[in-house]
Amino acid sequence: MASDIKEKGLKEKMTAGPDKRGRSGLQRAMRGVYIIWLREFKRFWRDRPRRIGGFAQPIIYLALLGVGMQSAFKVFGGGDVSYVKFMFPGILGMTVLFTAVFSSISIIWDREFGFLKEVLVSPVPRSSVALGKIIGGSTTAMLQGMIFLVLAFTPWFYGFSLSTLWKVLAVIPILVLLALSLTSMGVAVAARMTSFEGFPIVMNFLLMPLFFLSGAFFPLQGLPGWMTVLTKIDPLTYGVDALRGIMLRGVDIGAGMQSSVAQFAVWFKDPQIYQIGMGKGYPDPAALVSATQRAALPTQTYPMWLNVSVMLGFGAVLFALALWQFNRAE
Amino acid sequence: MKADGYAVEVDGLVKRFGELTAVAGVSFKVDRGEVFGFLGPNGAGKTTTINMLCTLLTPTEGSAKVNGYDIRTQKNEVRESIGLVFQDPSLDDRLTANENLDFHAVIYAIPASEREARKKEVLEMVDLLDRADDLVITYSGGMKRRLEIARGLLHSPKVLFLDEPTIGLDPQTRSHIWDYIDGLKKREGNTIFLTTHYMEEAEHCDRIAIIDHGKIIALDTPENLKNMVGGDVIRVKTEDDAKAEVELKERFGVNILEDRDCVCFKVERGEEFIPRVIRELGVRIQAISLHRPTLDDVFLKLTGREIREEEADSLGDLRTFARARPPFAR
Fold first, then answer.
1. Are A123 and B108 in contact (CB < 8 Å)?
2. CB contact (8 A) between residue B109 and residue A23
3. Spatial CB neighbours of A59, under 8 Å, sequence gap ≥ 6
4. Helices A162-190, A235-247: inter-axial angle, 10-degree rounding
5. Which residue among A68, A200, B267, B315 is buried most deeply as judged by most CB within 10 Å?
6. Closest CA to A330 of B316, B317, B15, B66
7. Nearest CB neighbour to B95, from listed A14, A42, A117
């Protein structure tokens, strides 16, 4: 009996209009965002292989590619360039960016396994669903980025010091911005897509050029003109530049290179060698010398305000695109 | 305030997918508290109609109201009024039953103070209380279905839509599910709108609309529909069938059904006719059976086809496919 009465009361409350429930549209939207975020996070956290893989991947990149490139630099006369240190911010960006973008495959997953319908027929606005997905994906991306950031304190990178701590703290907002932008990009693509096979192909097609032109892997110097133009168009260039600017401030990464290039240039000034060199199309030593007068490996090319503005603009466009695409999906 | 109108009111609803007309103009009304069944072969337009009523698809033509709210202009109000159990699974199987319900409770804005009690209540109803903290991935097909029904009821919807609630389940589980659905009506008094292509299950409904090729071809109570077919079919086996046929025609005045490899005939009250025929027939009877008309016979009479034949139909397959994908596919 008691439960009957309770149920009746419950039903009356439930069937009252939204106003009587004391929940405004905004509150409802925010709750939707929260619960969708929570679900994304739980799913990520329960998936141990995904957690481990997400952490192992950047380390493999850093260890194999970083060390490999460093050794190659030495062979080509780079001296004791600390390529691994140079690469750290790039790989950090890559970790966050790839995790962020590919987290949105969960939308396709949800659609294929029916869960998306549960969300789409609910009174929660579509934008909340998209926003929940974006924040959820960014959270997992940030978590992996943060684990990776712990490595910054090791002696192979920037050492255990207060200055490293400041750098790490300063770099986090940039990473958040990157994560939100790139998850939005993933959501925009996944919102209207149905194939698991198609998503990575489309994403790689979009992401690879963005990523390689951003200077995360190699310094953007001495590139052919057309490529330099492309790197300037690529919004990720500014993200990577910001990360590198913060992480490499006051870090000596390329002194060895500068001197060895200078040496190279001096050596080239020998008229006999110069003749042979010009004949074979080697660069003009004068140009080489002037190159050495700049920093051998760039830390920061653009001013920070420009980097942050470009990232903000890029993020806003992708975010709007994601909401638009998600609202369009039937 | 909305309690007086119909639970569902549909007027000339049409849905086309390109060339294909999935729903070709249906109109009907469902009373409050009624269990209303949509019966028809696969691809008849049942799910498409449900998807339009629950705002997942926009109708090409026509209008409909659910709980008094227009499905085109008052989507949010409609969504708040309905609960849904989809034909395909829509649970998150990496979450526990409890977490699935929590998710639902939040997106339907069930106040936190009532959430636990309500969750317990629905889980108890479907006998899943002891498995509430297990991951859904460990559930059997029948348990998942029950959980979906519980979830659909969690926010005490005015109208509960069940799209093929027993599809793909074994007979025992199917009859269990029906026990729950029958019990539901008594306990919660919701309006239930369900679709099925199982004839015997449609008999649980108060009223049935038989739908074929996107059109309603009959709408009545199961009893009245069966009366349309007219009478029971009696089948007798005797020592001399030819002699029996003559005698049945002349003395009992029945019409022997042609084209059947038996002595079969239709009478109005089969159960009263049998004792008489046993008593009075001059030929020794070896076997006698009574066949009551089923909804299968109704469908056969209305369309000239068995309902199951349709499943092998290639257009049916195409429709099944088109229907399985449309809401989010493109």
1. yes
2. yes
3. A148, A151
4. 160
5. B267
6. B15
7. A42
Tell me the backbone φ, ψ of residue B176, rounded to 5 degrees.
Answer: -60, -50
Q: Say if residue B267 is exposed, middle or buried (CB neighbours under 10 Å; 0-12, 13-18, 19+).
A: buried
Give the A:B interface size as CB pairs under 8 Å. Answer: 101
- Nearest-Å Rg of the Cα atoms of chain A is 25
Residue A25 CB neighbour total at 10 angstroms: 12
Closest-CA distance, B88 to chain A, in angstroms, reads 7
CB-CB under 8 Å, A122 with B90? no
State whether the Cα torsion A325-A328-A330-B2 is positive or negative. positive
- Name every residue whose Cβ is closer than 8 Å to that of residue B193 and which is 6 or more positions away in sequence: B7, B8, B30, B36, B38, B50, B53, B159, B160, B161, B162
Catalogue all structural domains in chain B, each as residue range(s) with its CATH number. 8-226+305-329 (3.40.50.300), 231-292 (3.30.70.260)
Instruction: Provide the ipTM.
Output: 0.73
- Would the pTM count as exceeding 0.80? no
Pairing of β B232-238 and β B263-267: antiparallel
B18-60 pLDDT, tens per residue?
Answer: 888 889 989 999 998 899 998 888 888 888 999 999 988 899 9
Nearest Cα to B302, choosing from B223, B226, B247? B226
Chain A contact present for B103, CB below 8 A: yes
CA distances from A321 to A226, B161, B328 (A): 28, 33, 18
A236 CA to centre of own chain? 8
Contact B79 A123 (CB under 8 A): yes
